[in-house]
Amino acid sequence: MDPGTWRYGGNTPCLELEAPDGPRFILDCGTGLRMLGNRWTAPSGEKSQRTHILITHYHWDHIQGVPFFAPLYVEQNEFEFYSFRSKFLGPDSLKQVFEAQMAVPYFPVDMSVMTAKRKFHEVDGGESFTIGENKITTRWLNHPQGCLGFRIETPAGTVAYATDNEPGDAKLDESLRELVAGADIFINDAQFTPDQLGTTRKGWGHSSWLEGVKTARQARAKTLVLFHHDPDSTDRIVDSLLRQARDEFDSVFAASEGMVITLGAPGEAVQAHMPGTRAALRREVQFQAKVYGLTEGGNEFVEETVVCDLSLQGAMLTLKHLPQLQSELQLTIDAPGTNGEGRIRLKGYVVRIDDAQEKGSVAVGVVFTE
Ligand SMILES: [Zn+2]
Ligand SMILES: [Zn+2]
After folding, report:
1. Among 139, 262, 279, 359, which residue has the fewest nearby CB atoms (within 10 Å)?
2. Cα distances (angstroms) measured from residue 83 to each of 30, 36, 94, 243, 255
3. What is the pLDDT of residues 242-293, one digit of tens each?
4. Ligand 1 centroid – CA 61 distance (Å)
């Protein structure tokens, strides 16, 4: 694990989406796919089922997790893959990518050990199809060798996934806005700073937080997720991009490894949480903390509390005050038994608020920034 990216994580794109009516989707097969697969096959193991895998394009960072996805080696599992016919690869583009990745000498075993049932579908930009009660629509995005954006309209709301796209092509900018129109969650490429995008990284096929904010405003998206962080961006750099975006737009998250975002009832705010499975620190220990924050009404508060579920990425706190969703909190935590010498100061923002077991309190999920 790279200490410079331990909070946001360093894996390449892979998202899982669970629709309320049952179907399970995976968006892209970057290196994050390996962790996802390991979670599926954890001892509690759920029953195998059919999964729909939507691939945006064939750049290495979006497919390299495939050979390391354990559920592909389980005979009962069924996968349906969707991606476009690449003019460089021809018919069955995605199948060919699979075979090439598992060819000698790149991988120790061949395709025959990948025993899960696999079906490949070719989709083109502008197409729509239905899976269960979910309508999926594709649009071309501006990226070298092409990239598809996916809009998934579920019974709980709409998610638009637009990784790897660069603004500046009028027709494709319009196609992005169509993809995103009124979406509850808009996941957009935010690899570069606005300055880089206008100068040294022009033409590289990526976007910035500022372009994401502009598109979110124009297309009336409700929540923006900054995605596809630059491999050279440390956590501190992503923190600063997030802070700038949040100054401009109400609801913004920076995608973070393991982060779960939930769509509530219509009209309710989108909430996130970190299940804390990764890099959890002595979770059985409770830490005394002083919390400085802002209430719903915009008033400052200070409260002494206990922090549970503390990890390097975030924590859960019980508070009597009701903080504002997405507002910044500061925590001063005393490590147990150190009489104040082991004091840690942390900053984070509120990503989730639930009723606490204790009456009159709320459980607050915080993701740490710096
Ligand atoms: Zn790409
Ligand atoms: Zn990419």
Report:
1. 359
2. 15, 20, 7, 34, 23
3. 999 999 999 999 999 888 999 987 777 888 877 754 444 445 567 788 999 9
4. 7
Q: Which ligand is nearest to the CA of 228?
A: 2
Q: Which ligand is nearest to the CA of 163?
A: 2
Which pTM does this prediction carry?
A: 0.86
Please return the burial class of 109, using the count of CB atoms within 10 Å of its CB with bins 0-12, 13-18 and 19+: exposed
Give me ligand 2 centre to Cα 369, in Å: 24
Cα of 142 from ligand 1 centre, angstroms: 10
